[in-house]
Amino acid sequence: MEEYLILMRLDLLTREAQPSPEQLQEYMKTYQQWVAGIQARQRFRGGKGLSTEGRVIRHRSEVTDGPFVEIKESLAGFITVAADSWEEALEMASQCPILDGDGNSVELRKVVTVPQS
Amino acid sequence: MSAETIVPHLFRSEYKKIIAVLCRNFGWDQLDQAEDIASETFLTAAQVWALKGPPPEPVAWLYTVAKNKARTFLKRQQVYQQKVVPALQHDEAPQTEIDLSADGIRDSQLRMIFAVCHPSLPMESQVALALRILCGFSISEIAMAFMTNTETISKRLYRAREKLRVMQVLPEVPSPEALPDRLEAVLQTIYLLFNEGYYSSCNNQLLQKDICYEAMQLCSQLLEYSVTAVPPAQALMALMCFHASRFDARLAGDDLVLYGDQDTSRWNQEFIRKGVFFLHHSARGEQLSRYHLEAGIAWWHTRPGDSPEKWQEILQRYTMLLELSYSPLVDLNRIYALAKVSGAKAGITAAREWIAGADYPPEVLRYYHLLLGTLFLESDTATAAEHLAIATSLAGTGTERSFLTRRYGFL
């Protein structure tokens, strides 16, 4: 029933008609082109390339867990988020002045790995 | 429906609305009062309806009772204000008209979203408070979702409320200048809320699904207003729709069905279509958010089977996601996509570089071992078994452990 309700609600928001398969394809194309366009402009401006060495928790970047299909849904079963220690440690660590710069933050990780009591 | 089934049902849908409206009337500092009155309303309903049966229009009945209780409170409050603290300042005089119309509720709820998802609160408090005040979950349900006890949640909620009080956060839509930042915080809370439901470790599947739908509902509220219907919000909605399409297919009884084993005919095409619609609307402006990229990845997962194009696209999106902000877990998922594109060997090399980079918490390490175990399955079953054994030992819950043992137990 909840599913029905949420779909009804989304219907209200998508009331501009139900897209046909062709329209859906068109929609996806718009999206792909838009992303490619932005990417091209960033590259043009000398935006960052792929960085695989930057294993730091960057300034202001939130460490979030996300609904990533690859590992969680393709390999693992249910996951446990030890939110208590992780977030709380993160909050403390985020106030650390060293984070005002783009600095590495091994300390942050150490705080994060403190096991839950 | 009998009183016993209808009260919990209505609690979920109406409690949050009543609180949002009352809070607007009472002022934010009286959140506790608003919650008390909303709770009392349901208590009265449970008592009266148990004897007489539910009224023909139970929602209207609840609103009337809530209004009456609120008026009594406001009257008492007025006397207090006039006689006891005449000098007390109020920037915004509490509204006296209690507006429980559909528009009034919507407007109050939007303000409430911004108050609860306030950047001064730590993320876990925001999520807990959102579950309680914006979604109407009970303390024990929230405790179940977070895999902790009710006492911890009560304390967390209490501290969160105190903080909002001290910070003098008001339930209002932020000014145009402050809006982008505040909206970002709101989107993040909704995102985490959805994630909490989608990959929750708790075994109550009804609750998990409910949490996801509530997250989608909150996002849809943002999409109803032009100021908040920004492209990243549209993209977040698309992302959630794509994942929600697999709700039924990924569960078989109490078990999780892995992506590759899911019956794709059970993927909900309605959700997928809606997701594409929102994704289309999100493709404007100059801000490429993580939700745009993740929704793009999630869309590919609504298409069954493996194809070189699929994995190349996914890999590219993951690479962009990492450029946007680095996260070890996102990186592991990128490595999985890399292995799909360039083969297991390339994946193993990348994973080994990854592990050499830093110390990781066990909940992240587990995925590393799981990934390596899978990548080694073809070439070296002994090494694969070692990694999978470590992954199993790092698994948090009994359910997950038994799942992994069953899945990879043949080794």
Report on this model:
- The complex is a heterodimer of chains A (117) and B (411).
- With 117 residues, chain A is mostly helical.
- Chain A has two domains: 2-44; 51-117, no CATH class.
- Chain A is built from five helices and no strands.
- Chain A has helices spanning 2-13, 21-44, 69-73, 83-94, 106-113.
- With 411 residues, chain B is mostly helical.
- Chain B folds into three domains: 1-100, no CATH class; 102-227, no CATH class; 230-302.
- Helix content of chain B is 70%, strand content 1%.
- Chain B has helices at residues 3-26, 31-52, 58-84, 102-116, 123-134, 139-146, 150-166, 179-198, 205-223, 231-244, 269-282, 290-300, 308-324, 328-342, 344-356, 362-376, 381-394, 398-408; strands at 251-252, 255-256.
- A two-stranded antiparallel ribbon of chain B has the order 1-2.
- In chain B, helix 1 runs parallel beside helix 3 (58-84).
- The longest helix of chain B is centred in the N-terminal third of the chain and has 27 residues, at 58-84.
- The mean pLDDT of chain B is 87.
- Chains A and B meet through helix 1, helix 2, helix 3, helix 4 and helix 5 of A and helix 5, helix 8, helix 9, helix 10 and helix 11 of B.
Tell me the helix content of chain A.
Answer: 40-55%
Number of helices of chain A: 5
Global morphology of chain A = flat
Beta-strand percentage range of chain A: under 5%
- Biggest sheet features of chain B: 2 strands, antiparallel
Low-confidence stretches of chain B: none
Q: Which structural class do you get from the secondary structure elements of chain B?
A: mainly alpha
* Net shape of chain B: elongated
Layout of secondary structure:
The complex is a heterodimer of chains A (117) and B (411).
Chain A: H1 2-13, H2 21-44, H3 69-73, H4 83-94, H5 106-113
Chain B: H1 3-26, H2 31-52, H3 58-84, H4 102-116, H5 123-134, H6 139-146, H7 150-166, H8 179-198, H9 205-223, H10 231-244, E1 251-252, E2 255-256, H11 269-282, H12 290-300, H13 308-324, H14 328-342, H15 344-356, H16 362-376, H17 381-394, H18 398-408
Antiparallel strand pairs in B: 1-2
Helix pairs in contact in B: 1-2, 1-3, 1-4, 2-3, 4-5, 5-7, 5-8, 6-7, 8-9, 8-10, 9-10, 10-11, 10-12, 11-12, 12-13, 13-14, 14-15, 14-16, 15-16, 16-17, 17-18
Domain RNA polymerase sigma-70 region (chain B): 21-78
Protein name (chain B): Putative RNA polymerase ECF-type sigma factor
GO biological process, one term (chain B): DNA-templated transcription initiation
